[in-house]
Model the fold of this input.
Amino acid sequence: MKKQKEIVMSGIRPTGFLHLGNYFGALQNYVRMQDEYQCFFMVADLHSLTTHPDTKELKENVLRVLAENIACGLNPEKVALYCQSHIYETSELYLYLNMLAYKGELEKTTTFKEKARLQPDNINAGLLTYPVLQTADIILHRASLVPVGKDQEQHLEMARNFVNRFNHRYGEVFPEPKAFNYGSELIKVPSLDGAGKMSKSENQYATLYLADDDEAIRKKVMKAKTDNGPVIPNSPKPEYIENIFLLMRLVCDDSIVQKFDQEYNNCKIRYGDLKKQLAEDMVKFISPIREKVNEILGNNKYLQQVMEQGAEKARKSAKTTMELVRQAIGLKYF
Ligand code: TRP
Done:
């Protein structure tokens, strides 16, 4: 008999405009996983309601993030790619899980405290129970592997607590979900100003977005921080130079990186040439993705079809789980 593939589930926030960090940190992993596991990837549109988004913007962001994921290589035929709000079973499971989630632990969550600080006038119950909804997303498919970044570790720990409480009270229905990454280290994509990582919200001029046009890419790369170059052979690279080499390793040929590395070590490096090379290779890398995104966004019928197909797959798995859940809780009277 064929071995059942392990189940992978992750949520993508519809905040629009993915950047190079999202690509190498998350998307590349998703694309790799789709061949090895049974994958559910969902646009977390319900979660985004906690911050009361503008209705029109919500739609644009959801469609863009879908298109960007497909353009980067997620195959809607292989995975279930769907919108959270299309699966009503999620809300039902969320309700049951809320009975097992305590006010104290929810209030202690780092992301809740951070959001409460940022939006003191809108500390709604949805914000408080955000990790409960996230748990519902995951265990609705009885998934055990969740590809997420470090910032989601606490939510996953809470998910495991809720799962254990459920299983203890009602019988074993759910596996414990755990964070998943290929390899031990996450690929960090440094920003172009030599400080920190590329980011959706901070310093747009030092972040390369998949939607940037060729000129914007060139401009941002050429502005990256450098200096007059080393004067002592084989000296260590300052962090902002190391970061530029890191970016080169992501998109340039090995031989090119080696060439510049040697020049650096011989104190012959010309940062203008290096940045020109990096800019052109970035353009080569990003422009086909950008064009694909625009092509997909121009085809509403296709996007609708992807969403429906994804929802159908997700619903099927959700229905099976919810039968087990209602039975376990005792909500079946005949
Ligand atoms: N909270 C996640 C984030 O901020 C998004 C998310 C929602 C998610 N539901 C999920 C991630 C389920 C993993 C699994 O990025």
In short: The chain has two domains: 7-180+300-329, 204-294. Strands lie at 7-12, 38-43, 80-83, 145-146, 178-179. The first strand starts at residue 7 and ends at 12.
